[in-house]
Each structure stands twice: as structure tokens, then as C-alpha cells.
Design goal:
By secondary structure, the protein is mostly beta strands. 5% of the residues lie in helices and 52% in strands. Strands 1, 2, 3, 4, 5, 6 and 7 form a seven-stranded antiparallel beta sheet that branches. The longest helix has 6 residues, at 52-57. It is elongated, with a radius of gyration of 16 Å.
Length: 119
């Protein structure tokens, strides 16, 4: 289970999400660079504002929703001694699941780089 937050700097939007995540870490080089790959196929995502890009995709309509489904894929890398503090590269996708959430079909993806702390 993953719970996260993000700040989209360019649009000044805050987002929170929760997702079920499947992660794999069976790489042979993990004793040198601890690496994982993960996919989060399903979970809610809430943004405090409607993204310009999501709004634009529904032809500037009024059906845009702050609540969406989150789907993401990611790769992490850390020093083995500090594996709870990885660098993260993530493709973060928010969508309305082909109109199932709110009746519209808007979606947007973000490429992100970040730092994670595992508790």
C-alpha cells in the first residue's frame, strides 16, 4: 500500500493519492546499487485544483474532476547501505478510467524525479 503527496511546481497544484503497489527488487546488481521497479495500477488521486492539461483534454468543459484514478510505474535506485532512501523516477498518470469516474475521459501523465523515505 502506498500513500503519497506531490506538488506540481509549474501549475502550483497539490495532489494526494493512495494506491496498491507491486514492487520487484530481484536484480543481480543490488549489492552495488539497490534497484526496484514497481507498478501501481489502481487507487484514488485528489488534486486541489483542476490541471490545465486535464481541463484542456475535455475541450475546456465543466466536467473536469479533482478526483481521479492514479496509475504509475517507477524505478528506484539507492546505495545498499541506505536502501530506505532511494532516488525515484516515476511516470504518474491520473485518469477518469475511460469516463467511469465523473463521466469525462480526461487524463494526464507526469514524469517525476524525487527522493523517498521509507518508514
Amino acid at each position: 500500500v502506498e500513500v503519497g503527496g506531490a506538488r506540481r511546481i509549474q501549475e502550483r497544484i497539490w495532489e494526494v493519492h493512495a494506491a496498491l503497489t507491486v514492487r520487484w527488487d530481484g536484480f543481480f546488481w543490488n549489492r552495488y546499487v539497490y534497484t526496484t521497479v514497481a507498478v501501481s495500477p489502481l487507487g484514488p488521486s485528489y488534486a486541489d485544483k483542476i490541471s490545465y492539461w486535464e481541463y484542456k483534454q475535455i475541450n475546456f468543459g465543466t466536467n473536469a474532476s479533482r478526483l481521479a484514478n492514479v496509475f504509475s510505474t517507477e524505478i528506484t535506485a539507492a546505495l545498499p547501505k541506505y536502501r530506505n532512501y532511494p532516488i525515484v523516477f516515476r511516470i504518474h498518470h491520473r485518469s477518469q478510467i475511460f469516463g467511469l469516474n465523473g463521466g469525462n475521459r480526461n487524463a494526464v501523465s507526469f514524469a517525476t524525479i524525487g527522493f523517498r523515505i521509507h518508514f
